[in-house]
Amino acid sequence: MSQKPAIIIDLLFNQDNVRAGLKGAFRGREVINRADPENRDRDLSAAHYALLWKPKDDLFQRATGLKALFSGGAGVDHVLTLPDLPDLPLVRFVDPSLTNRMSEWVVMQCLMHLRQHVTYSRQHARKLWSPLNQPEASDLTVGVMGMGVLGLDSAIKLKMMGFNVLGWSRTKKVVDGIETFEASELDAFLGKCDMLVGLLPLTDATTGIFNAELFAKLRRGGALGAPVFINAGRGKSQVEADIIASIEKGVLKGASLDVFETEPLPASSKLWAMDSVLITPHTASDSEASALFAHVERQIERFEAGQPLEHLVSRDTGY
Ligand code: NDP
Ligand code: OXD
Which of 181, 199, 207, 271 sits in a 20 to 30 Å window from 236, CA-based? Predict the structure, then answer.
C-alpha cells in the first residue's frame, strides 16, 4: 500500500510529550517532526499537512505543497499573524480533553475567590486562625465573555456549582438556565457581574478589551465587596496596567490570570507581588499531544474522503 501524504509536525511543545504521542499516531503516513535533528534539512515540499504551534520561520518557504494547516491549540492568533501564511484551510484544536481542563481551571479560580482562599493562604503562612464571612456561590453572578467551545462548557459547570451565570458573545446564544447577551449588550451584561471570566480569542476587536473603563462597569457591592477578573483567553486582550490600578483603587477585588501581555510574565511585573492576584503560567488548559494528534488524524481522514473539515477558522472573524 502506498504511503499517505506526509504531515509536518512543527510544535514548540514539550518534545517528550510530542514523541510519546506520535507513537502509533498517523498510521501509514510519513511524519516529519521538525524537532528531530535528522529532519533539519529534510525536503518538506511533498507534505500535504502541517500541525503547528510557533513553528520555525522557514516552514512556509520550504513546505510548498501544503493543502491544510492545523493549529496545535484552540487559539489561532499565533498562526494568523505568521509571515508568508498561505491561504489554506486552517483547523483549530477542539477536544474534550482541552475543554474539560479549561473548565476545571475556571471553576477552581471562581471557587478560590468565593472561598477567600487567597486571604486564607496568607493567614496560613502567618499561622493565623481568623474565619471570614462566607458567601455561597448562589450569592454571586459570574459573567463569561466568550461563549464558544470553552466558555460554554465553563458556564455550564459554573452553573452546576451553584453560581448565577451570564454569557456574552458576538452573536446571541440560547443556553438553558443562563442569561445571554450579544456584543451590543456589553454594558448591561457587565453591570450584573460580580466575577468576570475572559475566554475570548485575540482579534482586533478583543485587543485591550479588558481595561479600566470595562472594569468600572462591573457590578459593585456584591457579596465579595468588589468584582473579580479572571482571564484565560489571551494576554493581549487585557491591559495589565489597568488591572493593577483597578485593584489598587478597589475597583477590582482581585484577579486570576493565566495569560499575559508578555509571556513569560516579566519578573518586573507588579502583578507578581499583588496579594489578591493568582497567577498561572499559561497552563489553564494545555493541548494533550495524543488527543491533538487523534483530532488532526480524524480531520485529515475527513479531508481525504472529501468531507468538510470541522473547527475551521474564519479569516474574516479571526477565530
Ligand atoms: P471559540 O472560537 O469556540 O469561541 C470564541 C467565543 O468568543 C465565541 O463565543 C465568540 O462569539 C466570542 N467572540 C469572539 N470575538 C468576539 C467579540 N469581538 N465580541 C464578543 N464575543 C466574541 O473559542 P474557544 O472557546 O475554543 O477558545 C477561546 C480562546 O481561549 C482561544 O481563542 C484561546 O485564545 C484561549 N485558550 C487559552 C488556553 C489557555 O491555556 N489559557 C487554552 C485554550 C484556549 P460567537 O459565539 O458569536 O462566535
Ligand atoms: C490554546 C492555548 O490556544 O493553549 O490552545 O493557549
Answer: 181
**CB of 135 closer than 8 Å to CB of 223:** yes
Whole-number Å distance, alpha carbon 257 to ligand 2 midpoint, is 14
Average pLDDT over residues 84-104: 98
Residues whose beta carbon lies within 6 Å of some atom of ligand 1: 73-75, 98, 102, 146-151, 169-171, 183, 199-203, 205-206, 232-234, 258-259, 282, 284-285, 319
C-alpha of residue 3 to centroid of ligand 2, in Å: 31
Q: Does domain 4-93+287-304 have CATH number 3.40.50.720?
A: yes
Residue type, position 133, single letter = N
Q: CATH topology for 97-279?
A: Rossmann fold (3.40.50)
**Euclidean distance between CA atoms 31 and 33, whole angstroms:** 6
Sheet holding 195-198, edge to edge: 179-182, 164-169, 141-145, 195-198, 228-231, 254-257, 277-279
C-alpha cell at 125: 503562612
pTM for the structure as a whole: 0.98
pLDDT, one tens digit per residue, over 2-40 is 689 999 999 999 999 999 999 999 999 999 999 999 999
